[in-house]
Amino acid sequence: MLTRMVEMRDGVRLATDIHLPPDAAPGACFPVIVERTPYGRADISGSEVSAERDDPLTRAELAAIMTRRGYAVVMQDVRGRGGSGGVFAKYVNEAEDGVDCMDWILAQNWCDGRICTMGLSYGAHTQLAAAVGGARGIAAMAIDTGGLMDLWRHSLRLGGGFELKQVTWAFRHAAKALRAKGQEAEAEALEQTDIRAAILNGDWRAGGSPLAAAPDYEATLLHMWALGPQDAELCGPATRAAAHFDAFPDVPVLLSGSWFDPYASNMMELGDAIAGQNTAPLRRIMGPWLHGKRSTGMVGAADFGAAATLDEVTGRDWITLRLDWFDHALGRGPMPLAHDLFFEMAPAEPPAWPRMTGTWRECLPEPPRGMPVPLPVQPVDLRFDPASPFPTLGGGVTSGGTLMRGGMFDHSSAEKRLCEMAAVCSGGPLAEPVTLTGRLRIAFDIVAVSPPGPVDVAAVLMLRTSDGALVNVTDGFARMEAGAQSGQLDMLATCIAMPHGAEPVLFLATANFPRLDVARRESYRITLRVTAAEWRD
Length: 537
Hints:
The chain is an alpha+beta fold and 537 residues long. The protein is 22% helix and 30% strand. It has helices at 59-67, 94-106, 122-132, 151-156, 165-180, 184-191, 195-201, 215-226, 264-277, 310-314, 318-329, 415-421, and strands at 2-7, 13-19, 30-37, 72-77, 111-120, 138-144, 157-158, 161-162, 253-258, 282-287, 298-299, 302-303, 341-352, 355-361, 380-384, 423-426, 434-450, 455-464, 470-480, 486-491, 494-498, 503-509, 524-536. The strands form four sheets. The chain has a ten-stranded mixed sheet with strand order 1-2-4-3-5-6-9-10-13-14, with helices on both faces. A hairpin with a 2-residue loop joins strand 11 and strand 12. The mean pLDDT is 96.
């Protein structure tokens, strides 16, 4: 293994490890697999597990496996992280730095001119940023639950509500950075912070926030929290790939995503964009999983079983599937996937929560034409209580730490309390089965707000199984500015078959906390009228 400090266009140098195939002859050149990460170029990668192996690999161990298939592997710390120089500004430098990294690789005598990119989450963001930024040499891609089609909508703000995973992420990594500097007391203080109380009641001014002990992380977080959707740094290739997609290379792409992941809708948009533009092979996999948890059928409290795992449906673990995909893209092996794979979730029959089931489909069913839940005819009154906001009920949560959990859960024991905090819509058990596919959009008019000011509208679609479990399926959110008279919210993409006798239930509320921040810290009431609802593919 070689380590080099690779110079970027502005002179900043990034720590880069190069792993060559064993017994590589002098002067030999190879196709290159590259991952750019903020999580340590040689450190443990938590998602590099399989159904047969629970212990995650380090990136160095992963590289050793891949080099045995005849690839050179490059692992690089992004700017300001690990051993790299510069200042870490989350997301915004990844297009330019990615392009410069690829140019450097192409200039090395061990590179044969073909680069394959890989990475999960932030590693997926770095791939897509470089690709739409015009990076040369990309021959194949394996994009795993990430790649920012629009940072504002898919990672920074859901429907306008600030994603508090940005806060939990900042606390966790700030504590690691402080500990690495020997500031043990400060690190421990951060880890003991009651983040929930800090968000609802804390002082978040620069220098006085709960993150003040780590000023770099504090500044980055507060800056992101203050951004608007049209600010320049949210419109570049690293943060709004959709606006630069004409530069995306026409190369084989493998996409992996999941329904209980914050990037579920992002992955659907990315797949549609590639399919609409490219001619090279594209394969999409959408499982029921949590973020990066593709080798287990456990999704929160729900157990979808081994048949729901990537390993089972493809006959390969994720390492082997990526290598087989790259081999095919480079003309070195057969196509590993005959078609797309979309998991259609369903309650087990007979119902026996937490057991769930599902079916792998080659394509998604068409979205339903109507709503399985009757919409309220009269305006509904919703109340926000800052002492007890409507809670996050699982869903597409990642980086939640101890603050929140993602996935599917049974909420029947809390139903009475939830009904007191929300408006509830249900038409009773289904007379006929229905499959809900795509993204549900709910439109509404705001009839009254008291006292005046910004408000939040949240929705959660649940499924009551015939054995009485009340489980969350998907959710959506919209923040409305003061004086707004109408709005809409989009729920995250999903695919679930609801059988005869199951009961879909829609909750309308004024928060999704602590996944998202709140519009204001005072009590308010809102009266709204639901005007339309439609499923969109």
